[in-house]
Batch of 3 targets.
Target 1
Amino acid sequence: MDGPWLPQDAAGILLVSADPYLQEEAQRIVAAAGGNLRTAVDVSAAIHGWDSAAVVLVGSDIRELPPRRRAPTVLLGRASDGDGLWRLATALGAERVAVLPEAAAWLAEHLSMSGSPDPGGMVVGVVGGCGGAGVTTTAIWLAQAAAEQGISTMLIDGDRWGGGLELAVTADDIPGLRWPDFSETRGSIDPSQFRDSLPMAGGFAYLSWPGTREPVQSPDAGAVAAVMDAARRGFELILVDIGRSGEAIRTLAWDCDRMLLLATAHLASAVAAGRVLNELPPVDVRLMVRGSSTTSVDAALIAESLDLPLAGLIPEIKGVAAGTELGRLLELGRIKSVSRFANAVLEMNGAAQ
């Protein structure tokens, strides 16, 4: 698979920050990644060379961008910056956020990939604008359709407070690693070994939280970043089931190249989706609407009110609730209306562009 699903290459690193700590950390991390770093202490000093640098790192001490310049690649900050760091990232339009020193290993790997001729696969997040929109169901159907098109696909369970995506994927107990198995991960993960370690169903690999009530150990930010990088390097398409988890939106959503926002065809759902939209990173966001002939709010009207392109209408399929409980969503994914819907969305997200 080529072209549409792959981000562009990158080379050259610019840091814009007057913070000595961030400068020192960036220098160390860039050196570990085998790159060369140019530092500018403020925006005015960074104007020349901003657009020619494929990787732009901006420190949390920078509050505005130079006029008519593209958004920074990564916003660097400290844990003490708190939630303000995420708000600043949204304001600046940063593609990624790295909290140092915790994310140092991830950033080094990210910079190494940026200089590689193979930048990895496309990460698409699926997020719920309201409860009951069918995020997990839709994510599974999209992964299934992509795999049937011959795209190397992975599905990631992004909500550790959910019931475990694997329960909806299949009723079988398929061997392979789950999220807690990466809780002790440090540094980078070999993409081939990572790919081979995952369970598979419907032609795609998946990484789920365990579908049990047992307490589990959660991977830290560095381990999650390593997993996401291995996924990007090991697959052509990575779908992330973010659900409506605020935690997942603050973390995994910032690894996504594109987002699919789901809503139901109701006024309250449109209002709720608008609030969620405000929390999403500044990437390409498309709307999908689940409704039926009995709903009164037109999907196109909801899309217009949110100022989003309408990616598709999620078909109402009898037995979805039971299929989710019994691990039979893949069977429903073979229904013609579901296949048509999923293939149309996949073309919107890559093949048709």
Target 2
Amino acid sequence: MHRRTLLTAASCTAACSALAPLGNAHAQISDLNDAINKAGRQRMLSQRVGKAWLALSHKADTPTARQVLDQSMALFERQLAELKAFAPSPTIRETYLKLETAWAAHKVTLAAETSSTDNASAMLQADAKVLALAHQGTTQYEAALGKPVGQLVNVAGRQRMLSQRMAKFYLAAMLPVDAATATTEIAKARGEFIAATELLRNAPQATNRIRQELQLADGQWVFFDAALQRMQGGGNVNRQVAEVFVASENLLSSMDRVTGMYAALAA
């Protein structure tokens, strides 16, 4: 009963404030650290919209999933325009022009009927292209900054993406859509997430506030990881999908705060 109460409360939190954790996501880019943060957030959003689309396929927690999908797509477009305009070199601008094209194609897959497994496969292929270009832009902005803290902003920002990527592949496997690949990708992302958390915790630049926030993230990770482990356990699929969806949102919230703290270090 206690666990069900926790889930219900978490679902309400996610439904009522789907994008509340994303800090100053609507402000204009102020500097290169901020650009790395927002470029990294594009990686996360590429996976978050896929997660929400797949949740709609499951018809699980549909109002929240629709809100997350619509608001994430709108945020992606706003940040894409900002990052393209802020680009400090022709090379970076070219990356965002390519990302603009890939995103336009991906929007077509996101507009497709969610009940088709063929559409789900097409969506996953399209979001992989968007993710690759968003990652390329992030690393280019990190190189433009040329400071160690830039790498930490990139790594922390990538944790946000991994939280959504694991959830997305969990929802894909439960349809099922290419369950074997999904299982492999979840295991890979899980290992990367754990290693990166230790890197962020032990970085010389980590402040007490950052370490405290990472400790809070540890608590969210325990719940999320437990939800992921239930993939092979049978049971109520829609409930499992809702649990993973909510847990990934809560973990995202923590890691977004950590990313913002690292981005502020050199401000």
Target 3
Amino acid sequence: MHRAAGVNCPRCGRAQPPDAEGVFCVHCGQFLVRTRWVALPPESAAGSTPPAERRGRYSGPPRYLSPPRWGFPALPWRLEKPATPPSSASIAAGHAGLLVPLLRGLALLAALSGAAEIWRYVLLLRSRGEALDAGQVAASDALVEAASWVCTVLGVAVGVYLLLWVLRVIEAAAERSGVRPARSRRMVLIGWIVPVLNISVPGSVLAEVEHAALGRPAGQRPRPSRLLLLWWALWAANVALSVFTVLWSLRSGVQARANGVELHALVDLLAAATAVVSAKVVLWLTALVGPPKSIPLPRVVSVREPAGAGRATASTVLPR
């Protein structure tokens, strides 16, 4: 062990105590032993590389004679450049990622509710000539009530989320085409919720979104695609039939109730078809307003003449 007794520290100038050992100042921690720099040839010129020294066992964090004065500032991590806010197209794509599975789940529940209504109607037909099992009637009633309530709650939630997606996709289509939306948010919400208006306005809004996303002239009349026309017809039929079913349920009588079961089954099946087509429309319009995808172009990496082919040449083409 190096004896540092009587040595004056080059930093603080204080002499070391008689019992001091080691190569560091006991007062400030300065290195006391004089060092000599020696230049050595690089490893390539020296020949064989010396064996790497084996690292010792970890003995814990380093210890300091005094509290260290260095460290990171007590601030949160910050980016060098301010983050840009997400665009309407990216927000619409994020909404679509959750909206499509919800629509497909709603379609399954609506189909299950329609099957329950059909089962109830079959039991009504059987009840005209025979006595029904109480267990079957109770199971049918429970299935109808549970499926209808769950389908209604999920339908309202999906409808609200669909409206959020529609508002974002309208803004994304307007940004993509460089024009202002033809309707304000208030007009879109009113046209989507108010009866009678919600038969024509939703289809018109989505047709305008498709028209703007495809880059067609702003003064040209929108021409919806076949997929959008199919969705529009299903949506209008579903709204009209739902209103008619609610009004029909106000009637009394055995035959009116039996016809009400038929109407409820038809509404559920039509809602399932509308939900399936709505998922396809959401995917279609989200892809239209999204950023264009780059297509890899082929590039020639080598050209050579094969043996025995004369003037014929062969080339290797790989995508970029």
